[in-house]
Amino acid sequence: MSRPLHRGFSGGGRLSGDFHDFLEDSQMKFKAEKEDFDKNRLSPNHRCSWNPFHFMFTYTTSSPSKQSVHENGFIVPDTFSPVSSRKRYKLTLFLLKFSLFVIVFLALTGSFWWTLSLTAASRNQTFRGSYRRLQEQLVSDFWDIGELSLGASRTKETKETDFCPLECENHIPCFNISENLESGLTEGQQQDRHCGPTSKQNCLVLAPSGYKIPHRWPTGRDVIWIDNVKINAQEVLSSGSLTKRMMLLDDDQISFSFASSMIDDSIEDYSHQIAEMIGLRNESYLVQAGVRTVLDIGCGFGSLGAHFFQNHLLTMCIANYESSGSQVEITLERGLPAMVASFTAKKLPFPSLSFDMVHSAWDGIAWNHKDGIHLIEVDRVLRPGGYFVWTSSVANTRASGRKKDNSNTGDIVRNFAKDLCWDLLSQQDKTVVWKKSSNKDCHASRNHDPSVCKVGHDVESPYYHPLEACIGGTHSRRWIPIDERPKWPSRATLSSKELAVHGVPFDDLIEDDLNWKPAVRNYWSLLSPLIFSDHPKRPGIEDPIPPYNMVRNVLDMNAHFGGFNSALLGAGKSVWVMNVVPTSGPNHLPLILDRGFVGVLHDWCEAFPTYPRTYDLVHAEGFLSLETSKRRRCSMLDVFFEMDRLLRPEGWVILRDTSSLIEAARTITTRLKWEARVVEIESNSDEKLLVCQKPLIRRRSNPS
Question: Name one GO molecular function term (predicted).
């Protein structure tokens, strides 16, 4: 695991079978993408399915001139007639491409056999130093040959062809509502996530023309730049009174106040009301009652989560994809946990028994429809003894008694909650609070629907499986009431008995946590001179207190046991971590959630369900090794384009992996225009760090 680091830089790297496979896969994939591009490049549904090498196949259609520029940078004279010129052009193009193909083929073949001979020779320690230098040069040569074969120019004009079109500026691949409607999806399913060949987005998403680096935490929680999100001043001013009370427009900023109204009362009063309905003095006692993680469905702009955060509660906001005025985008811009998620037809990507509280206020979900299948999904992710808080105009049957439909809706929800063995704790005004039963035998004593899921259907990896009308989680060994679990922060270190449920030895978790502590200190020592460049901080001085904290949203692409998250909190960093467990590896997400962290399952060959520019730091330890060990349907280049989409301008990437994979990854970062450095790791010559920063590149504003 992590060991002490020292600052240093090295060039080149080691060529391994993984990198050779990467080059071979990329060549094959390039041919297939060319065919797809030629077929679909004029289709409006493919505007965000950008191919970074599209300029290779784009021909000019303008009128003939004295000379035209060939797509590979050659100047072709045009002194003949259009017909003969076109024939000569095609003939010249064919000869150039054929010659280039032969050169590249011979170079790659010769380099491959050269590598094999060097590998055999490397066993002799006498040639170790020269072998390493030859390897470093070979990696560089391979990349230069690949660039030449693709005809990529190093000029600024050619680089700009890698940028995505304007339509992709706030788009999330896999959430194409118009395409879903065209395919016949209705009844809300058009809001669901559908990943296919057209959802790939291999281009660099530019920041909006007015984009500014977000305010530092905690200032950024209460004030955001309006140009950073897909909402304009007119939309704020023309919104209803409810939204106006939540957001205040001030020149080019939007400010959020905890005194702003979410319902009829302020956020403080509302959270205080929830605590009282549970039987507590106020919201500060929720942690003592066993509540740590909250799932907020349709969270508005994260105001409840922002308030809960002060009381050591971690709130995950989920909401549908929105092309403008997004709840998720604005919540993330404020530095609060959020992700796009719709459970109209599919399960949420969380295992059963994941959250201590589920909150739903004015989210527009028809809880009484489809035989209560959405309430069944809430029950699945809710821990035994957990709470479901519902605020709606139809929740209070007495207040809505004049409207028969509203009254029926409230009664249907109450009856269904009773069928799920939820206890009605309290009702005040438009808010109702239920408590999920801690006794799983309650379900066995019933003889009516919904029935309990069979063992084979009650899975811990529900990666966008279809919704099921059966009660899940009852077969899980993790069925432990929240009031019997350790209270936060003790929950972060699970006991040996709890770890046995996950099949993880206690010593493994302790060792993992111990290894991550020095790693986080060393990460911070590498980043802090640049992060805090405008603060009089010197090496050895403690981190400045807020607001000097540029890192807030952290994405861990391969979270393992959540040790990186634990070490960051243990070091007192004011961050939250989205712990992502790849579907290609072991599923430790239930363990991570039981520790009181937040996370999600994800297939990294698909787009992550969030808007562009939403994370300050992307971290991955062992991720490259994990992905290259599998036969994947995507290349590493695809994954790096997705990382760039998620990363905020001036954000950071830290990758730790084998030396050969790190060196191969560094060559990819040049394609993304990242500033990158390779850092040696003391006492471990087989691993390296790759530390990168994404530059701020704004889209040019249209001339008036």
Answer: methyltransferase activity
